[in-house]
Amino acid sequence: MRALALRPLHPHSAELIEVPEPSGLGVLVRTLAVGICGTDREILDGEYGWAPPGRERLILGHESLGEVIEVEDGSSLRKGDLVVGIVRHPDPVPCPACAAGEFDMCRNGQYSEHGIKELDGFCRERFRLAEERLVRIDPKLRQSGVLLEPTSVVAKAWDHIERIGARTRSWSPRRVLVTGAGPIGLLASLLTRQRGCELHVYDRHEDGLKPELIKELGGEYHSSGLEALCGINADVVIECTGAASVVATVMSNNARSGIVCLTGLSSGTHRIKHDFTALNRAMVLENDVVFGTVNANRAHYEMAAAALAQAEPNWLGRLITRRVALTDWRNALESKEGDIKTVIDFCL
Amino acid sequence: MRALALRPLHPHSAELIEVPEPSGLGVLVRTLAVGICGTDREILDGEYGWAPPGRERLILGHESLGEVIEVEDGSSLRKGDLVVGIVRHPDPVPCPACAAGEFDMCRNGQYSEHGIKELDGFCRERFRLAEERLVRIDPKLRQSGVLLEPTSVVAKAWDHIERIGARTRSWSPRRVLVTGAGPIGLLASLLTRQRGCELHVYDRHEDGLKPELIKELGGEYHSSGLEALCGINADVVIECTGAASVVATVMSNNARSGIVCLTGLSSGTHRIKHDFTALNRAMVLENDVVFGTVNANRAHYEMAAAALAQAEPNWLGRLITRRVALTDWRNALESKEGDIKTVIDFCL
Q1: pLDDT digit of tens for each residue in chain A (348 aa)?
Q2: Could you say which of B251, B277, B292 is where a domain stops?
Q3: Do A284 and B263 count as a contact with CB atoms less than 8 A apart?
Q4: Are the C-beta atoms of residues A240 and A178 closer than 8 Å to each other?
Q5: B279 and B167 part of one domain
Q6: Same domain for B109 and B205?
């Protein structure tokens, strides 16, 4: 069967190769789609990624959607079920967080991740995975269920926002600002509206699909410069750009007891001059919180599955702006104008 | 009776004046001691502070210790009880946080504060306060109970650290770094050791009382430059300096899932160049939290009273490095070499 593999840290070494059928135990899954994100592009560019121990090549792909084609006796899954693979696996000798099932909060970094770190990814025609590593999703999500993994990151973000907010009994966020309207920002916007909060979204793009999608959610779209963010006074900010100037701006401008959740990553070095005394003073006097979040554990995948099942299917489907056949993978891995989420569609 | 009053925003306008005996309802308290902190010095320098509405002068003092001399019928307080006044009062039309008793998290800034904002302080021979505005402390704290207010700030810091930490089930902090060994840093160190955590303390002073006090708590004292902080890898950092360079260093150097609690304030502007991309990246990939905290509500005063009652009395007493008579208040308000906490002692 075919798989998209590369030699980690070797730029542009990706190629479509023949690999043996998946062997061993576990549920056999036929891949329907694999989503592409910035991490995949970093791995492709040779900046990131680890092959499985003793091997040269890593199969790419961590945003998956598949269909169960073979189950073990006694499984709660059935043939035909739609499933998504959980990306991170704890080390066999787990840290306290991993031992509690909170591998997203791993304390020692000894985890592995499908398609990223020491475990083959899902960009292959079939894979086997232990049942507890698969999340079943609503059958109606056949078109957009590949968005589950990025949604799990947002579900974790909201889970932690709510847990941190609950440090005070009286916390009840009304106004939410999302910076960056890529897939994470749009899914964060969806989960924000599902909570009934007022939504503001900031992105550089002035027109096109992004403002439309936000408007359809009932949110307000801002693209006229960072200064506009200073007056929004949001109770919660979900930062999805990773851009230094945006991060510094949202850290300095939010409501009293405000919570800023950082989800975005950008690479490189960007030293900016910032008044740390003023930032510190504002954070102290206003009881502000800033926190970073990465990855998601099983509970967050389940929350994400519930959120996607509640979403308007047409809205969700429009986040996938390009579907590309596996043979055309080079095309999928390029960033193009107007892209939101590009998916390698195994049914094409 | 005598009171230390000043005209807010008029530098060095403080003077000892005669004021009428406290009238109205509430518990009558004889002042035993008033602690002096950086906020008092900012008010004295004309940088901060608000007089009560319609008045020119504000009586200074928010860190109090007093003895009940007259109670109303049905009071749970008795003559001779040691009490401390709660600094912040919510607005008569409270915000949701204030309505829940969490006036330390006030959302609209419409609170008042004894000795700081629109309410006379405790630096007067007697005051009256409603019973619910007084916290009773252990009779053995006659010498050091004036430390209750700064301890309440630290009790709130630890309360929020623990609530934020509990966003994951597996959180269990082992190593704590306290930056700054002033009164807040030393009291934070005390509460850290009361929780059984490993304690590291950073301060500029190489010798004298501070290293001794930390050593007696069983902590490790560091004074050899900020670089030393990078290797400590603390699960929790309690930042008590407010200094831009220290804040930037601790935000960038802590353990995975680390929590940095900012309690320190410094004035002025200090623009430092910092790599925000790297800071953001580390916070995201390591699930880090940074939060600010100010003030304390009644629950935190009660926690602080319990913490002080458990502390070693001699250790606590040594935090008060100068006791000055009310007539000598100018002396008390000056910062002197070797000062930790200076107290105006009404019994001298």
Answers
A1: 999 999 999 999 999 999 999 998 999 999 999 999 999 999 999 999 999 999 999 999 999 999 999 998 889 999 999 999 999 999 889 999 999 999 999 998 899 999 999 999 999 999 999 999 999 999 999 999 999 999 999 999 999 999 999 999 999 999 999 999 999 999 999 999 999 999 999 999 888 999 999 999 999 999 988 888 888 999 999 999 999 889 989 988 888 999 999 999 877 666 777 778 888 999 999 999 999 999 999 999 999 999 999 999 999 999 999 999 999 999 999 999 999 999 999 999
A2: B292
A3: yes
A4: yes
A5: yes
A6: no
- Cross-chain Cβ contact A242/B288 below 8 Å: no
Under an 8 A CB cutoff, do B97 and A170 touch? yes
What total number of domains does chain B contain?
Answer: 2
Q: What is the rounded distance in angstroms from the CA atom of residue A303 to the CA atom of residue A152?
A: 7
Same domain, B181 and B224: yes
Angle B127-B133-B138 from CA coordinates, rounded to 5°: 90
**B296 → chain A, closest CA residue:** A287
Task: Choose from A117, A159, A167 for mutation: most chain B CBs within 10 A.
Answer: A167
Residues near A162 by beta carbon (within 8 Å), at least 6 away in sequence:
none
Spatial neighbors of A225 by CB under 8 A, at least 6 apart, are none
Does A22 fall in a domain? yes
- Same domain flag for B281 and B255: yes
In this complex, do B291 and A292 lie within 8 Å of one another by their Cβ atoms?
no
Distance CA B52, CA B62 (A): 14
- Does A86 map to a domain? yes
**What CATH number is given to the structural domain containing A283?**
3.40.50.720
Q: What is the pTM of this model?
A: 0.95
